[in-house]
Amino acid sequence: MSRLPGLFRTLREAGKTGLVPFVTAGDPSFQGTVPLLHALVSAGADAIELGIPFSDPMADGPVIQRASERALGRGVTVRQILAWVQEFREKNQTTPIILMGYLNPVEAMGVERFAEAAAAAGADGVILVDLTPEESAHEVEVLRRFHLDPIFLLAPTSSPARVATVKRLGSGFVYYVSLRGITGGEQRDWDEVAQRTAQLRQELGMPVVVGFGIRDATVAGHLAASGCDAVVIGSALVERLSDARDDRHAQGIATEFLLSFREALGRRMGEGT
Predict the structure, then answer these.
(1) Looking at the 3D structure of the chain, how many domains does it have?
(2) Is residue 72 very low, low, confident or very high in pLDDT (cuts 50, 70, 90)?
């Protein structure tokens, strides 16, 4: 069973906003992926989005595109990523892992085979950026059969019909894309984002997690005050990790960067107030 409902219930009861870092599997190093995941948790991550590298990541800006290229160049595959998730679960049975990527690598493996293997490894949810809700009935059925949450993206331009479809098919949370563009872009009107987030939480009746363009703790704190359930830190973290000299340095970079966000959002569950 997915760990996401329990996480968001705990966050809500404590009045906290979740911190969800995104990293590309296999970057900045192949062998350092699992230790980096543990470092993210130690730095305050409530859940982790683990990116499946793809050669044509249409929704991603240059920072994550380059991370995908580096990971693919190191030979990272979907099966390797699931093996890393399984290894992570040997020491951590509580932090949700969301696999985020594109439909092509999943279809290449086979949707059912992928879902079965992802569930067995210990994943909790799946975001397929280019899988539109209107065309997702088969994938949703398969993911649900293996107790994986199908998570969809909504954007400022999403129609009422799409919001209704996501409400019907999605679970775990909704990923609200804060800007009209690609990852790593710049959002200038965070008040508008906060207002739309509040509307979506009411309309959907499920957690809303905000991502794209969140580059500093001040913005994260503003979103937390608006009532979103969690924020995703992606390109800003991946960009910093690209400068890591080695695995230990990467863990230090991640820890230092996330601590400011953790303070802005409130401490993680079990760390006090």
Answers:
(1) 1
(2) very high
pLDDT over 90 (residue 51)? yes
Does residue 49 carry a catalytic annotation?
A: yes
Kindly give the interhelix angle for 33-42 and 78-89, rounded to the nearest 10 degrees.
Answer: 50
Does some domain include residue 272?
no
- Considering the candidates 49, 139, 149, 239, report the single residue annotated as catalytic: 49
Supply the CATH number for residue 191's domain. 3.20.20.70
**Selected catalytic residue, list 13, 27, 56, 60:** 60
Flag whether 199 is in a domain: yes
121-141 pLDDT, tens digit per residue, is 999 999 999 999 999 999 999
